[in-house]
Amino acid sequence: MIRKYAAILLFSSVSAGAQVIKDADQAKPALTYYAQQDSSHWTYGGVFNLGGNQGLLHNWGAGGELASFTVNGIFNGFATYAKGKNVWANNLDLNYGLNYAYSYSFVPRKTDDRIDFTSRYGKKTSDSSEFYFTGLFNFKSQFTKGFDYAIPDWQKRPTSNLFSPAYFTLAPGMEYRKGNHFSLFVSPLAARLTIADTAYTNLTPQGAFGVPNGKTSRFEFGAYMSARYFVDLSKTISFRTRLDLYSNYLAKDVKDTNGIVVRKDNPGNITMLSDNLLSFKFTKHVTVSLGLVMIYDNAVPYISTYTDASGVVQEKPEPIKGLGWMQIRQNLQFGVEYKLGKIKK
Questions:
Q1: Considering the entire predicted model, what is its pTM?
Q2: Residue 227 near residue 243, CB atoms below 8 Å
């Protein structure tokens, strides 16, 4: 039922502008140019990158995985409408990756999974200003089930799924836009809704994704900031980064059914998302990209142990435990890139 209503909400948000997708901050010419011309324009486009890695060993003295294959897909798309003082900017980021290896019978394991859609509608404060009164909508989720592969019987213990969790953010605020390279949005009145199936919120006493044990949703109200920056360092090198910060005014300690505090929380526990991508272009369609995503969310604590089938607590065999609660995804990808889009003048 949760997935049904969430799907309807997401569809209605996207279908409101059928030609809408990617980072409007990268649209060229600059959005301020359209506003000065006081004419109607759509700018849209995107980048699709498909990469992979394959390996095969036989009687290899140094050892290693006998056979493996990894495939990753990344799509960044945008659509922007600008007329007079008004700008409607939309972006969609999709990531998915799978790894297959001989040592675990080529059963696919996820290396990446992301859905991130943002729509912003703003109106200039004056003809010559770079400030906009803006309303923002953001949706985040994933495509398929997630697992903790450090646990031996991970197939029986999915930790997440499509729309579990799903995050919806709605915020009015002020946005500063500098040409087509930089934007900063700030809102002191941002509402966020997190939904998840009880199959996942019941896994721990404190629940999951900030949703309490046995519940299917969590409402937050607080302050939100989102900054985006894009630059071409050269004809072949580009860099883009994004920083999102959120503070929940309603945050408080989470207690179990016995009144025992199982997770401490307060408005000072700021949720952070830092998304960075550095791309090197060797030919028109061949690229190498280095990506780093860092997330800190007090609602997703780091748990270094698990309970096995015999009821014994075991330590997870993870190589970078010292990073604690910080969620990190780093990837280096060699792949084929295809750009699509058109600029109407």
A1: 0.80
A2: yes
